[in-house]
Amino acid sequence: MGDHQTAWPDFMTVGQLARRMGTTPRTLQYYDQAGLLEPSELSSGGRRLYTAEDAVRLQRIQSMKSLGFSLDDIRTRLLKLDAPADIAAALSERALAVKAQIQSLTSVLASIETLRDKALTTQTVEWDLGKAPAHISSMRLVDRGTFGVCGWAVDTTLEDNDRAISALYDDFFGSGKETRLRDLDGSQPGYVGLCWYTQGHDRYSYLLGVQADPNGEPPAGAIVKTLGPATWAVASYPTGKNIIDAWTEFFYTDIPQAGYAPNEEYNLYFEYYPGDVHGNYQLWVPVVPAARLRVTPERAG
Predict the structure, then answer these.
(1) % of the chain beyond a pLDDT of 70
(2) Mean pLDDT across the chain, nearest whole number?
(3) N or C: where does the chain have the smaller number of CB atoms within 10 Å of the terminal CB?
């Protein structure tokens, strides 16, 4: 578990435990809010403090998650299992689910190869291959050049983000700020929620705005963030999908399973709403290869 050569202190902060266990403070903060891993103590200043026993529980969560169990299943059922027979039964269930996924992906691969062969031999493409499997990830990779995002930002924490970001949205749409952005050079349809860490993983800024010319002059009080060239992992989600759940699944499950890791040195991540902010949305995360490549990037137009 973690660092076997160094003795565990009586208490660890969020950052200390995250470093020892190969995760991020933001993940630990989310696990606390989700009821997966609560700190054993709080300091006089309200900081989370963890023990070696908490680290053991975290290791169990990490192991289960790496096997593909959902966080909800881990919280409500798996963490309560102690008997080896019960744990074996849960693993057997997971094995059956993985086999079903393999069968589904095998079917998808066969359809892809059939479509490719027909396209090469007949010079036509017939897309009617039957109903697609229900559990295929929509993640894709996009190589994208430099672009800008202009809007208004708020600095917040994970604990306070609901209040702070809700106030930002209310002000953005209620005071006419959204309309002012549409007059900018290079302003694009849709809305962007851009975030970046400002103090380790303890604090971050969230900017609500639109894509625009990175060299343009922002309205009073607004800022422009320039996003340089990067390879982005992109996933689409329907209206009603909880965005915190979507970020967690995409960031910590879908991207690693595709053989990539978030590019934390880039430190800019965003939500894109092509229509209104209550509709369908996309998540964009800059990534770098973590293992062998499994997805071929497409070029953004």
Answers:
(1) 88
(2) 83
(3) C
Single-letter amino acid, residue 151: G
- From first CA to last CA, the distance across the chain in angstroms is 46
* Strand, helix or coil for residue 183: coil
Instruction: Name the β-bridge partners of 144.
Output: 230
Helix 14-21 vs helix 25-33: angle between axes, to the nearest 10 degrees? 110
* Domain span at 196: 140-299
Greatest CA separation for the chain: 73
Residues 150 and 68 in one domain: no
**Residue 127 forms part of a structural domain:** no
CA gap 75, 73 in Å, rounded: 5
CATH code for the domain of 55? 1.10.1660.10
Q: Which of 80, 99, 122 is the last residue of a domain?
A: 80
Are 287 and 254 within 8 A, CB to CB? no
Q: Nearest-CA neighbor of 214 among 151, 148, 160? A: 148
pLDDT surpasses 80 at 65: yes
Same domain, 190 and 72: no
Give the global pTM.
0.54
